[in-house]
Inverse folding.
């Protein structure tokens, strides 16, 4: 299969225009249904009580923080190896979305931690590695914008994104490798998930909604990045063509 | 087979990138293994028994509140309980506010210092939530059928029924 066919900016634009409305509609439907189930229809937890509802916002945000970073690392690899402008645009477009999901995850986790654990924050391996993930997103965005030449900015930040990718397995497995205050995974266990089905469905609906929302925002932002780049090239060409005085 | 120059360059960059990632991954794995003891958030009572925990200074111990070990002091905000990992247990004394989830059979992390008499004097007690989520009716059914410890884990206990 020829992937380069989809990597051309023009082909991407045709693809994005076709897919975008479906992601928007899907995200609205899933988040609407998910939030209704999570906040009203699902039962309270046997020991957390109503506070369990924070989980439906927090857990998918944490998944997205990692999923978006995995995408960012892939875009960075494509940018370094194939030097493709679409990969540069994708990296720049999705980093702020990933940072936003990570911040949402940290904030809601803290709000849950106070009533349940008895503290807003602890420096255990899971919480610390997620905070580092957030800082790597911010560093990526800062480094990307720090150069006058956007290509150099893309190269430098792509290297940073790949170095930061070693943090992803640490975030995921921190709760298994070391003992932490944070609980281990409930879904990705070898035996059955430790979440009752009445709470699992709202969680999965929210997760699908977040994913579609990410796809929608990413498509819009990548298109905007491509247009911006094109505009910069045209402006540059126009001034270069004017005779020097 | 002779590759065109651009494709050869891409192959080379891909190879360099994979090698660099492999090196970085190995370095990270080695570093994390070396600092293993410092990355744990708490020590288990067995760590303390095997003298693997830094008992001479402030540290955290974690485990389950042993069933039947909780004693509240009349007229004072002081509690005594034992933290167990089902092999070893440490007596803990704590003055202060306990988190809502605190009860016998619940996971806890206590921050404090092990005194010479073997009692852990905690300055902070945090509840540790497990990975189980279920509605109260399901918890009640598990409790009635006596399958609680098979599903949730040995040494744990369901909370008392809420009215």
């Amino acid at each position: 299969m020829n992937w380069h066919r989809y990597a051309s900016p023009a082909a991407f634009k045709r693809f994005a225009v076709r897919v975008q409305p479906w992601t928007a509609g899907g995200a609205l439907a899933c988040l609407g249904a998910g939030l209704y189930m999570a906040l009203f229809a699902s039962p309270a937890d046997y020991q957390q009580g109503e506070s369990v509802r924070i989980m439906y916002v927090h857990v998918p945000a944490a998944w997205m923080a990692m999923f978006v970073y995995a995408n960012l690392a892939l875009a960075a690899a494509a940018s370094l190896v194939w030097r493709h402008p679409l990969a540069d645009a994708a990296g720049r477009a999705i980093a702020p979305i990933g940072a936003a999901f990570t911040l949402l995850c940290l904030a809601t986790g803290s709000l849950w931690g106070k009533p349940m654990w008895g503290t807003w924050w602890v420096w255990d391996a899971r919480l610390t590695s997620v905070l580092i993930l957030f800082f790597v997103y911010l560093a990526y965005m800062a480094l990307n914008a720090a150069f006058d030449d956007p290509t150099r900015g893309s190269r430098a930040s792509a290297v940073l994104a790949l170095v930061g990718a070693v943090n992803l397995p640490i975030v995921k497995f921190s709760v298994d490798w070391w003992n932490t205050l944070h609980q281990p995974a409930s879904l990705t266990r070898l035996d059955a998930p430790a979440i009752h089905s009445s709470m699992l469905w709202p969680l999965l609906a929210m997760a699908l909604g977040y994913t579609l929302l990410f796809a929608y925002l990413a498509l819009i932002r990548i298109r905007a990045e491509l247009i911006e780049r094109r505009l910069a090239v045209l402006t540059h060409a126009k001034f270069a063509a004017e005779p020097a005085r | 087979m002779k590759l065109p120059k651009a494709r050869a360059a891409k192959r080379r960059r891909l190879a360099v990138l994979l090698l660099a990632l492999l090196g970085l991954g190995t370095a990270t794995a080695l570093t994390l293994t070396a600092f293993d003891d410092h990355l744990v958030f708490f020590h288990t009572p067995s760590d303390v028994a095997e003298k693997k925990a830094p008992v001479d200074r402030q540290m955290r111990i974690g485990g389950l509140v042993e069933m039947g070990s909780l004693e509240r002091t009349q007229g004072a905000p002081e509690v005594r309980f034992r933290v167990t990992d089902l092999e070893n247990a440490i007596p803990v004394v704590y003055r202060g506010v306990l988190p809502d989830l605190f009860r016998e059979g619940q996971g806890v992390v206590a921050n404090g210092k092990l005194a010479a008499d073997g009692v852990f004097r905690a300055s902070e007690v945090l509840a540790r939530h497990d990975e189980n989520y279920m509605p109260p009716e399901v918890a009640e059914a598990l409790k009635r059928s006596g399958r609680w410890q098979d599903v949730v884990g040995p040494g744990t206990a369901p909370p008392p029924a809420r009215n």
